[in-house]
What does this fold into?
Amino acid sequence: MASATFERALRRVPEETHTFVGLSAEILDRLHALMAERGMNDDDLAQQMGISSDELAPMLSLGHNFTLRTIARLQHVLGETLISVSGTHESEFVHH
Amino acid sequence: MNNLLVIEELYRFRRVCFYTVRFDDDTLSETEKFITRILDTPDLEREYGEEMDTLIAVLEFIGDVRGAQRKYFREENNAEALPPPRGTLEAQELDIDNRLRLYCVRLSDEVVILFGGGIKTALSVQESSDVRMHFHLAQRIATALDEALREQHLKILGMDMFSDSNERLLYL
It folds into this structure.
């Protein structure tokens, strides 16, 4: 039988939080796929971004609130688009 | 302190059943105590309510959409802990960017047992008084769980967990 406490906690979650978690998972999937394509591990990415592994770790966790600045930095390091904006061409956002 | 734990179903999603543990003489499970402490204490709800919402949304996302993949869980950063004996289950936590820590053990893509949790205020467990006790309890439960599974007092089939007695019990 489901826990009433857990059901209450589930009911209060705003719809936007579900969207946020889903978006963060999709960005993470894309990030991991690009890292795998380039044979990069977490330490390599941290080094190329000029940050420590401890600073990178939260970005590789679900529910990380990526800033546009961080996404821009990741796109620059990886040379590929991480996210695109509806109605625009993704190539506009990667400066090679 | 009572050392008898009952393993109970917390919530069954489409792809994952989350179980929890309750001390035999308690009304609430360890996970329920964690949730109610944050949500029912006004100061904590103000400060951490949104992060609890995210944590619950992550559980639903894993439970309904992705399944309990290994990548969504991590071992706690606990420099003082000795490595567990080979093959022994270790307490884990949900790998989320959040100040709240919820300890657990992932047994398969379909079965996760959630323990208690708290607010992590420092990089290490030892320095975070709010989570330290929960982490150490989680480690003890993980060890007891490992033994119960190895000796087949508990068995897992898909999302279900069976016991060789009437109740799913663990002795700490």
About this structure: Chain A is about 55% helix and 0% strand. Chain A touches chain B through 26 residues (CB under 8 Å). The longest helix of chain A spans residues 15-37.
